[in-house]
Amino acid sequence: MRLLKPDICVIGAGSAGLSVAAGAAQLGAETVLIEAGKMGGDCLNYGCVPSKALLAAAKAATGHRHAAGFGVEYAPPRIDLARVQAHIEDVIAAIAPHDSVERFEGLGVKVLKSWARFVDERTIEAGDARIRARRFVLATGSSAFVPPIPGLDQVPYLTNETVFARVAEIRDLIVLGGGPIGVELAQGFARLGAKVQLVEMARLLPRDDAEGVALVRQSLIRDGVALHEGSTASEVQRSGDRIRIAVRDTKGETQWLDGAHLLVAVGRRPRVDEMGLDKAGIAATPKGVQVDAGLRTSNRRVYAIGDCTGGPAFTHVAGHQAGLVIRSALFRLPARFDARALPWVTYSDPELAQVGLTEEAARRERSDVIVTRQPAAENDRARAERHDDGFMKVVSDRRGRVLGVTIAGTGAGELLAPWCLAMARNLRLSALAGPMLPYPTLSELGKRAAGQFYAAKLFSPAVRRLVRVLRWFG
Ligand SMILES: Cc1cc2nc3c(=O)[nH]c(=O)nc-3n(C[C@H](O)[C@H](O)[C@H](O)COP(=O)(O)OP(=O)(O)OC[C@H]3O[C@@H](n4cnc5c(N)ncnc54)[C@H](O)[C@@H]3O)c2cc1C
Questions:
Q1: CA of 20 to the centre of ligand 1 (A)
Q2: What's the CA gap between 119 and 131, in Å, rounded?
Q3: Measured from the CB, is residue 14 less than 6 Å from ligand 1?
Q4: Whole-prediction pTM
């Protein structure tokens, strides 16, 4: 068995691991990257990329509905699901070279395609190699959590790892789970012509702003998705080549739903098993590898980042944490993961974007919350484009510091960027109300929401008195 002694050894070549490996190698650190499955991990192969490619096709499939509002009529589309699937595969293939073994070897990373496990506190075994690195980074990600529902293990259910390879077959789908993954895929398949039923034990998108969720809910219903919120799946059965699932609502009444395919999307389970974490003294629970604020595990040589920590499961979180680990491991600078300004977007139509606290969460935490709200219906660009059913809501403290922002509607994810900056830099609303913005743009919604905070102060009796006095002095 060969022995490697790099500066840094990264386990997992998903969003988290690739970012650390690329950064470390480009900074001159000797880097080993170990991946047992596909380069690119979930995001490229089974997550963000295929789901957004599916949603793009789904949006194209409903373009005729929106066009009718402009007086432009074209026939309902003919959807070729095999070509939709080919489009998704094509998008993955176009991005794959960026995450490939060849590119990483070109950057100077030694890539090992093998399963990695710790054999002691400072040694990993992967294939025919033993790696004794100065620092290790665990970036082993997560997989779909499969709940212990009686009968589920007896039916051929789909997860995010299998569904994108079966797009061409899906015409009658039950989606279990109404989080971002369930919502996006339910809408995507419904718009592509499938009959879709969605079961969620709480309410849709439970972490999001209720008013924004209401818009997404309306849109799903318009797309023909049969929603079963507040409904718990209690049993699954196979019936010929179909699947039956019993769902109990809040009144305790049970009904059986029936579909050809079942997608399980009820949450994520960090990948922490069979890696010899106990041999390395790395504390982990089924919820994930335990880390401190600097992303170090209970073994000081080992960091853990991305989905495997059980924290917010997003590619941008993985990328951000990768930057912090490089700072800490290579430059020995202090690094601290702060989720205060965490953004996330559900890429439904309309999109639902959030950074920081929702109004509900802010009101739970503190008493000095001020909310300003701008409906898209008052934005000229949104009106012209007939996308006027969204809104922007800015939650701040009394001094105008941004605590959180919700945006619902077309382009919500793109409109979030200045608010992420505002929160990351602790800016006041005056910084967003001040700049001149081009007219007519959706961005003006943000400027007006920020301006609204000051309007009450600006048009107060005291200011009006001051203006009168100044006029008197000429
Ligand atoms: C359907 C879906 C849609 C999503 N959409 C979005 C989105 O729009 N935006 C967003 O920000 N996030 C999205 N996400 C979440 C995002 O995909 C994840 O947060 C991200 O991929 C996590 O990256 P990671 O590097 O932590 O883990 P992963 O991408 O899971 O990578 C971990 C890698 O480690 C490898 N591995 C595990 N154990 C070992 C071992 N012992 N030895 C060797 N290799 C190992 C695995 O094979 C895997 O390739 C989505 C997820 C899903 C499922």
A1: 14
A2: 10
A3: yes
A4: 0.96
